Amino acid sequence: MSGKNGPSDKKRRNRAPSGQPRMSDVAELAGVSSLTVSRVFHHPEKVRENTRRKVEEAARKLHYVPNLVAGSLASTNSKVIAALVPHISNNVFSDVVQGVSDVLRSQGYYLLLGSTGASPEEEERLVTTLLGQRPAGMILYGGNHTSRTRGLLKRADIPVVETGNLVKRRIDRVVGFSNFDAGKAMTRFLAERGYRRIGFV
C-alpha cells in the first residue's frame, strides 16, 4: 500500500461523496475555506468574483445544494417568503401569487406557496410547518386565523402581511380592500342617480 497520492486519489477527492455533499467538500475542491463557501451562497456580494466562480464551479461538479435553512438559523434571514392562499386554482388568488412572485424575484427572494383550502385549522398547520423553514416573511390571504396562528406569527419576529379583505385585528401589516365599503359605495353611486331597483351579480 503506497503512501503517495496517485491518480486514483485525485479522482476520489474530485468526486462527490456518497450521499449529500457537504460544504466542506465544496471548500476542499475549490481550495477555499468553508466560511468562503457559505458567503458565496448567503452573501455573494462580499466575495471576489474569481473566488465566487471557483466555488460555484465546485458546487456544480459535486451537485451540491446549499442548506439555506441552516444558514438562516444564524442570520435569521433566509431568501424565502412564505405565502398562504385559500385555493391556488382560483384566478383571484393566482393573480396575487404571480404578482408577489414577480416582485420577490426582482429583489432576490423566492416564494414558498401553500394552499389552506380556506380552513383556519389547515392554515395553522401550514404556518407551524413553514415557520420551521425560517422564512424571511409571510403573506396570508384573509384574516380568519386561529388564536394559535396569531400567537405563532406574533412571536416569529418576521414581517407578516395580511391581504384580501381588510381586517380589524391585524397581526402586523394589512394590504387589501373592504368588500363592505365597496358595496356601499357602488349602491350610493346608483341611488344618487335615481336608481331604485338595483341588482347585484
Notes on the structure:
- This protein has 201 residues and is α/β, with parallel strands linked by helices.
- It contains 9 helices and 5 strands; from the N terminus they run αααααβαβαβαββα.
- The chain has helices at residues 7-14, 23-30, 34-42, 49-62, 68-75, 91-106, 120-131, 147-155, 179-191, and strands at residues 80-85, 110-115, 137-141, 160-165, 173-177.
- It has a 5-stranded parallel beta sheet, with helices on both faces.
- Helix 2 crosses helix 3 and helix 2 (23-30) crosses helix 4.
- It is elongated.
- The termini are far apart.
- The model is unreliable at 1-18 (pLDDT under 50).
The main pleated sheet reads as: 5 strands, parallel
Low-confidence stretches: 1-18
Q: Give Rg in angstroms.
A: 25 Å
**What's the shape?**
elongated
Q: Structural class from helices and strands?
A: alpha/beta
Q: Helix share of residues?
A: 40-55%
Q: Quote the beta fraction.
A: 5-15%
CA(first)-CA(last) distance: 85 Å
| Helix and strand sequence | HHHHHEHEHEHEEH
